[in-house]
Design brief:
The structure holds 2 protein chains of 2 kinds. Chain A has 8 helices and 18 strands. By secondary structure, chain A is α+β, with helices and mostly antiparallel strands. Chain A has 2 domains: 230 residues, Rossmann fold; 95 residues, Nucleic acid-binding proteins (OB fold (Dihydrolipoamide Acetyltransferase, E2P)), CATH 2.40.50.140. Chain A has a 6-stranded mixed beta sheet with strand order 6-7-8-3-9-10, sandwiched between helices. In chain A, helix 2 runs parallel beside helix 4. Chain B is an all-alpha fold. In chain B, 82% of the residues lie in helices and 0% in strands. In chain B, helix 4 packs parallel to helix 10 and helix 9 packs antiparallel against helix 13. Classes of the chains: A alpha+beta, B mainly alpha. The structure holds adenosine-5'-triphosphate (ATP) and magnesium ion. Adenosine-5'-triphosphate binds next to strand 2 and helix 1 of chain A.
Chain lengths: 333, 302
């Protein structure tokens, strides 16, 4: 493990911002810290960077306990949530700052900055000031600034939060490519599950200061370990009385069940193939979602959400249909 | 004013449109005229009142100062201005002002920095403490220092230890000036620092920049104009200070008298021309400061 957190606790005025946080990250991976607002993601990142100090627990980077090593000596690049570009310096000077502080020779700095400007595709904008850039360009400059001193670990706090939806999608593909090109171990914070799933090699899900689950996006999607994770990752319906559904071994210990829309199959009267088993349901609502239909089905007193391909015959509200459920996730919370 | 602009816009937008909107345009024109004449009258009234007030209360007295100063001719004026006591008072005034500005600049930056960048208990209390000189009458401030450093004061030993006299001496004048001008600079830069947040500083610190470098490259460019503005206000106040200095200086002519004190002494001796002549020095200084203030304010806005 390249970065390791062991039993980290952090309180702010008695509030547990980190509550026994432990995880490890492999060298070269791009890891997402995913969780709702206030779940302690930024706090974790700041502690790794040395901007905050944990109350207890160890932070290990490259086999060294860094708790007592100042942030500037940890070999970290940090991209702040609002970029925190130096507003009275040009783009060039912003990127050069970290090298200048290290007293690197001027020509070397110049070359490095030029190389980075090229990497982020802003070769001509070195002389601009941050307030003369668009959000996406600022984001890139912040990224280049963090990378300039060749950090071993790159930390990004909500790198796309301040950017509008369309550019955000482009930018995250871009970031993914940049990071694999540079090959630096990276942790980025996000509260957007789609972003985490799309970009990260591994996801750490946080909630209320605790780590809920660690795993690859696919693993977390298919095998959520807690009710929270099941709800937070991917779309889902939660039902408390799964006993009313047929075909499942009722587990009396479990009080909540989570159903993924993709795991629910619907058979209408016009469908080519039909089944004999399944449960009886009624369509209560249909809505168009771009590349699929979202269907609400009522089975007894349970309302489920299912997806349906556009090629399949359409269903109408009130239609009696058959429903099969491939998988349920049961939780005993 | 805002309303007027809005109407203009409407009008120009409706111009290229066909006839049906003409009536609308007409109506809005009428409204505009009515509105304008209404607000114009009020506007002129208010401006005239303000100007009259400023003239009677501020400009006229200043003119009187200059006229009275020159009443006995230019030679008398020059004699009063170049009098050795006047020169000494001017020197002391400038000395006290410079020391007060330097000390308050350093302290003001430290205080504002501490308050805006750190969270600690009693922070709000510190903020209120800084404002004390605004709240306390300068005369009382002077008395406080006499009771502290004077012959019966509890800190007299401290002054003796330093080998100086504070009360009724130049250090007293300086201390009084520092005290009354002490909130100006921190008050000016605090909001600017607060608005900046601490991300940029943290980013620089993470890259290994020293505290001084961070201040020089990131914080200072940000507070520059506000700081200069604070310094100007501080200087203006320092030069004009009367109450606290009057009490603490003991008014030893030629030793502890600043310009304002000197003016009062001359006036009490019925030496009106000289009093006004010396006052005119203060007026000139004030005008210079006013000009500097306007330039800085303009720059600060940019
Ligand atoms: N300096 C601080 N002082 C007091 N409380 C704090 C401080 N920093 C964070 N907290 C609290 O700790 C909790 C976790 O904060 P944190 O910033 O880590 O959340 P987050 O997961 O990054 O949220 P977001 O997605 O909104 O940025 C929050 O409830 C917050 O109020
Ligand atoms: Mg955060």
């Amino acid at each position: 493990m390249y970065v390791e957190l062991k039993h980290i606790y952090k309180t702010f005025d008695g509030f547990h911002a980190s509550d026994d946080v432990s995880f490890g990250i492999q060298k070269g991976n791009l890891v997402a810290l995913l969780g709702p607002s206030g779940s302690g993601k930024t706090t974790i990142l700041r502690m790794i960077a040395g901007l905050d100090v944990p109350n207890s627990g160890e932070i290990i980077i490259d086999n060294v306990v860094v708790n007592d090593i100042p942030g500037s000596k940890r070999g970290i690049g940090f991209v702040f949530q609002n970029y925190a570009l130096f507003r009275y310096m040009t783009v060039f000077d912003n990127i050069a700052f970290g090298l200048e502080v290290q007293k690197v020779k001027k020509p070397v700095i110049k070359n490095r900055v030029k190389e980075l400007l090229k990497l982020i595709g802003l070769e001509d904008l070195g002389g601009r000031y941050p307030n003369q850039l668009s959000g996406g360009q600022r984001q890139r400059v912040a990224f280049a600034r963090a990378l300039a001193p060749n950090p071993h670990l790159l930390l990004l706090d909500e790198p796309f939060a301040a950017i509008d939806a369309k550019v955000r999608k482009e930018l995250r593909t871009w970031l993914r490519e940049m990071i694999s090109q540079v090959g630096v171990t990276s942790i980025f914070v996000t509260h957007d599950q789609e972003e985490a799933i799309e970009v990260a090699d591994e996801i750490i899900v946080t909630n209320k200061g605790k780590v809920e689950q660690i795993g690859t996006p696919i693993d977390i999607y298919h095998n959520p370990k807690t009710l929270f994770v099941a709800q937070f990752i991917g779309q889902s319906t939660i039902i408390n009385n799964h006993r009313t559904l047929k075909d499942f071994n009722v587990n009396e210990d479990c009080s909540a069940a989570v159903l993924r829309p993709r795991n629910i199959k619907l058979f209408g009267k016009n469908d080519a193939d039909s089944i004999t088993g399944g449960q009886n349901g009624t369509v209560v609502d249909t809505s168009f979602r771009g590349d699929y239909m979202e269907i609400k089905v009522k089975i007894d007193d349970i309302v489920l959400i299912a997806f349906r391909d556009l090629e399949e015959p359409s269903l109408s509200v009130g239609e009696k249909i058959k429903v099969t459920i491939k998988q349920l996730h049961l939780f005993s919370e | 004013m805002a309303n007027k602009k809005a109407f203009h816009k409407k009008e120009s937008r409706s111009k290229p449109l066909p006839a049906e909107t003409d009536t609308l345009t007409e109506i809005s024109k009428v409204i505009e005229q009515k509105h304008n004449t209404g607000s114009k009258k009020v506007e002129i009234c208010l401006i005239v009142i303000s100007l009259l007030f400023l003239f009677v209360m501020l400009l006229l007295p200043l003119l009187v100062v200059v006229i009275s100063a020159l009443k006995d001719g230019f030679t008398a004026y020059m004699n009063a201005v170049t009098d050795s006591y006047t020169i000494k008072a001017l020197t002391l005034t400038i000395l006290a002002t410079v020391i007060a500005v330097v000390i308050n600049t350093v302290f003001g930056i430290f205080a504002a920095w501490t308050i805006s960048k750190y969270h600690f208990r009693g922070k709000q209390f510190l903020v209120s403490l800084i404002d004390i000189p605004f709240a306390i009458s300068p005369v009382i401030a002077g008395l406080i220092f006499i009771l502290t450093f004077g012959n019966i004061g509890w800190a007299k030993g401290l002054a003796d230890l330093l080998g100086t006299k504070i009360v009724f001496a130049v250090p007293g004048v300086v201390i009084a000036t520092i005290f009354v001008t002490f909130p100006f600079i921190s008050r000016e830069i605090l909001p600017v620092l607060n608005a900046q947040g601490k991300d940029e500083e943290e980013a620089a610190a993470l890259m290994g920049a020293s505290g001084f470098k961070i201040f020089r490259k990131i914080t200072f460019p940000h507070i520059k104009w506000a700081l200069l503005y604070g310094i100007i206000l501080c200087s203006a106040r320092a030069m004009g200070e009367f109450g606290a200095v009057s009490v603490l200086s003991g008014r030893l002519r030629g030793k502890t008298t600043t310009l304002p004190l000197h003016v009062e002494i001359l006036y009490n001796e019925f030496n009106t021309t000289a009093a006004f002549a010396v006052s005119s020095i203060l007026v000139i200084l004030a005008v210079l400061i006013l000009i500097a203030r306007n330039i800085v304010e303009y720059k600060k806005k940019q």
